[in-house]
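TICKET: design request
STATUS: open
ATTACHED STRUCTURE:
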């Protein structure tokens, strides 16, 4: 996990889908000039403040290895080849003890509080614990096991208690508050002012202002939530691992050869040679539902996937959801908020739940109207084929593919023949070079340890100067114990706290189905888009030029913007012409096929927009409602009915497996943020489209990197976007992008 600050590290690591928690921006204090960052490394002197704090050691070689500074090249890299689960508990306990001692040293400092001895001192705490969390994150997301999950269940409440001890340390909070309210704030650089405010708000928004019984209850709630979040995530993972649909050779009708080979390999790895395994993950479910001619099997696979966490057994998540919602509501009521959503969105770009709802509800009618059109087109094919049924959710992908082929003469499997995973990775490197001036060089000498043989690493340097930027890890393939989906994370972020610029350690993780030995991995256009998306997160981290760890944190409905924007470079001519080549012949993708892809760019937007919005709207309604006595199954069903959810579609993430909002708090009451960010994305993409050099225009690219990537959270996102675009983003760009009619509104700004 990249270091942010001690007070936020635990929250980030205990949320599977968290990428950094948003912080409130006090516009009265900070909405001023754009942030100016130092051009030289800084090293604020805090003297011998930590001189009496003993090093974090355990006497256990396995634990001490997890605590130890990174070693080797590139300013040191994690010891992934030596990580041993036997040392995890002891390392966590030693790291927490050391961190609390550092915090106490700051809190009990007899000197008056200053920016250096309080705010900067906090930035310098928790290094050992941060390193332990790097390994925790790998065990949690990339190689989970029953043994790890037992440790996770035991330690999550203890980690929550540890966090509460910091958040509720009144001496510490009073020192932070004194700096925040002092006249010195006016003498600090804008990024330093923002750091002070983020630190102050990190305490104030998490119970530091409470007293007595309320403070104790706040900590108790957090402790219980830590257990519930962990249980929720582990239940979903158990259903993903425990439910596999096996089919035989007579049931392969319609499936592409590449999928058949991957399914055979998946079955063989599960000691079911001769069969074909449809695993309970999106990367397996989605292509099966798209191509399989077996309608009964499509229904089976669909029900298995969308029933994760909802099977009425020991892994059922409904009771957990109900308790999570009740505890979240109780906790924010202690802080004086009307509901959880109001507390969560105060520090997002949206600011209020109503503004987030306004955006989603402006798009919803156009999305569902498009679904009706899509269903009519599909039903016409069913009827023409003599089918005696109406389109059901397990039919949608299958018949949409038929519509695609009929309407655009576009065969998704034909497109896949030109989408080789390795070639797409090279395309991403090309884009990074053109926009960010980055160069990626593979590291093949074994000097950078990895946690699995599939993981590869690259050094990232500046193309012009050769200056080292960081190291990029890629873990591309699905396997048992690995969380489904795709995500980005990091193991060290940029800062200059020690007087030198930190080398960034960034990672991308996917769940592509590994092909048979020697066979290229071919992926869908949608998966290629996701590949670019997650790489955008990595580029955001690698671009950082901030001085302080906390300023690498993100505002949730803004941080998705950078990654969503990078998706726009996949269909550019430079990528298509040079990297989309046939896996057998090496011939470039034909112009006619490219034309079909671009003509179909708004195809299926009814389905994709509606399934996403349904999840985002249900998330927001959950966290705006009184959760007393809530039954998640009924709430989900009734909310969707009230919205007018089409029968042919389900939520992208049904509540019992909605890990974004229930396995942690990274996206809770914030799943709407993908659409908020997509408004920014569509608007920014038009800035490139209008430029003389198009998507590779050097001036626009420089402005993008300087104003929206390098500054991270050192400036209010709204101000950052204004500096890039000269105005706020407009929803019309999103509607044009999706081929929807423009909304009837006088106000077009986000």
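STATUS: resolved
RESOLUTION: sequence designed for all positions
ATTACHED SEQUENCE:
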């Amino acid at each position: 996990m990249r270091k942010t600050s001690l007070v936020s590290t635990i929250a980030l690591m205990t949320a599977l889908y968290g990428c950094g928690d948003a912080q409130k921006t006090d516009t009265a204090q900070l909405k001023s000039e754009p942030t100016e960052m130092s051009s030289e490394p800084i090293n604020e002197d805090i003297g011998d403040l930590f001189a009496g704090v003993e090093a974090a050691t355990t006497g256990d070689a396995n634990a001490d290895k997890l605590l130890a500074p990174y070693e080797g090249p590139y300013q040191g890299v994690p010891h992934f080849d030596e990580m041993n689960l036997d040392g995890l508990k002891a390392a966590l306990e030693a790291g927490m003890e050391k961190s609390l001692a550092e915090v106490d040293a700051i809190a009990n400092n007899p000197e008056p509080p200053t920016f250096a001895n309080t705010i900067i001192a906090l930035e310098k705490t928790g290094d050992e614990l941060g390193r332990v969390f790097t390994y925790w994150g790998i065990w949690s997301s990339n190689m989970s096991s029953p043994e790890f999950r037992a440790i996770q269940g035991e330690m999550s409440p203890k980690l929550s208690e540890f966090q509460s001890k910091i958040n509720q340390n009144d001496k510490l909070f009073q020192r932070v508050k004194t700096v925040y309210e002092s006249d010195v704030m006016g003498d600090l650089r804008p990024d330093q002012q923002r750091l002070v405010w983020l630190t102050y708000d990190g305490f104030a928004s998490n119970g530091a202002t409470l007293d007595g019984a309320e403070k104790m209850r706040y900590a108790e709630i957090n402790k219980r939530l830590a257990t519930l979040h962990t249980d929720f995530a582990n239940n979903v993972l158990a259903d993903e691992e425990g439910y596999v649909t096996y089919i035989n050779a007579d049931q392969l009708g319609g499936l592409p050869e590449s999928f058949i080979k991957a399914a055979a390999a998946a079955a063989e790895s599960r000691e079911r040679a001769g069969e074909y395994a449809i695993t309970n993950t999106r990367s397996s479910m989605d292509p099966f539902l798209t191509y399989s001619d077996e309608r009964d099997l499509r229904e089976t696979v669909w029900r298995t996937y969308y029933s994760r966490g909802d099977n009425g057994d020991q892994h059922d998540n409904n009771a957990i959801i109900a308790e999570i919602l009740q505890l979240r509501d109780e906790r924010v009521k202690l802080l004086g908020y009307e509901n959880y959503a109001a507390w969560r969105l105060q520090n997002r770009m949206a600011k209020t739940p109503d503004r987030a709802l306004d955006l989603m509800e402006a798009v919803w009618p156009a999305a569902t109207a498009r679904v009706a059109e899509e269903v009519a087109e599909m039903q016409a094919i069913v009827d023409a084929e003599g089918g005696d049924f109406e389109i059901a959710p397990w039919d949608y992908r299958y018949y949409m593919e038929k519509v695609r082929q009929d309407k655009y003469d576009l065969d998704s499997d034909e497109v896949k023949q030109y989408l080789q995973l390795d070639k797409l990775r090279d395309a991403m490197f090309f884009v990074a070079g053109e926009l960010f001036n980055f160069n990626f060089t593979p590291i093949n000498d074994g000097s950078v340890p990895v946690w699995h043989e599939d993981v590869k690493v690259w050094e990232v340097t500046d193309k012009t100067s050769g200056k080292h930027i960081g190291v990029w890890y890629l873990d591309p393939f699905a396997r048992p114990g690995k969380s489904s989906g795709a995500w980005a994370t990091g193991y060290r972020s940029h800062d200059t706290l020690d007087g030198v610029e930190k080398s960034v350690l960034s990672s991308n993780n996917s769940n592509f189905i590994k092909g048979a030995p020697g066979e290229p991995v071919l992926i869908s256009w949608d998966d290629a888009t996701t590949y670019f998306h997650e790489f955008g997160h990595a580029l955001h981290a690698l671009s950082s030029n901030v001085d302080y760890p906390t300023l690498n944190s993100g505002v949730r409905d803004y941080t998705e913007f950078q990654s969503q924007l990078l998706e726009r470079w996949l269909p550019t001519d430079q990528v298509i012409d040079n990297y989309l080549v046939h896996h057998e012949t090496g011939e470039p993708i034909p112009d006619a096929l490219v034309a079909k892809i671009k003509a179909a760019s708004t195809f299926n937007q009814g389905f994709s927009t509606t399934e996403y919005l349904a999840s985002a709207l249900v998330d927001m309604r959950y966290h705006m409602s009184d959760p007393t006595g809530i039954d998640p199954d009924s709430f989900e069903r009734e909310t969707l009915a009230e919205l007018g959810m089409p029968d042919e579609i389900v939520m992208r993430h049904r509540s019992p497996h909605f890990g974004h909002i229930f396995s942690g708090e990274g996206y809770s009451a914030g799943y709407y943020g993908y659409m908020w960010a997509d408004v920014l994305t569509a608007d920014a993409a038009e800035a490139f489209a209008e430029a003389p050099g198009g998507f590779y225009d050097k001036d626009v690219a420089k402005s993008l990197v300087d104003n929206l990537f390098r500054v991270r959270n050192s400036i209010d996102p709204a101000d950052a976007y204004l500096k890039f675009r000269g105005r706020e983003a407009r929803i019309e760009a999103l509607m044009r992008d999706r081929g929807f009619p423009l909304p009837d509104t006088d106000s077009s700004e986000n």
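CLOSING REMARK: Residues 7-37 have pLDDT under 50 and may be disordered. Residues 243-306 form one domain.
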